[in-house]
Structure formats: structure tokens, C-alpha cells
Amino acid sequence: MHEVRNWLTIVEFVELGLGIALVPKSMQSLKKDHVQFVEIENNDILSETHCIWNKRSSSILLDHFLQLLPFGTV
Fold this sequence. Notes:
The mean pLDDT is about 85. The chain is mostly helical. The chain has helices spanning about 5-15, 60-70. The chain is built from 2 helices and no strands.
């Protein structure tokens, strides 16, 4: 079993014949000759996403960005 977290490495592992993977659609732009990308239609796949920042940082831009996130004010 291989556990890889970098999308490019995951695609490389697939190209080397080390398995299959579910990847974001954006990986399709890699144009790998030996990798077949197939879109999964009619799916309800959700992906956990995180937003991180340095708590010591302070800027108006960061404050505005955080206001756009679903959890609102932090």
C-alpha cells in the first residue's frame, strides 16, 4: 500500500503502474501519455478542504478573505 499526499506524485505513481487514484479534474491538464483520466459523472463526491494562515499575521487582505469563508468571522 502506498500513501501519497502530493497530487503530482500520485499521478506519477499511477503512470508507473502502482495503482489507480481519484484526483481533482485539474490534474487532467498534465497530459500524461500513459495515464487515462476519466470523469466521474453524476457523483456526490465531497472533498474536505482546509484553509490555514499564520495566526500572528495581520492584514486587511487576510481579514477580507476570512470574511468570504463559510464559517464567517474567526
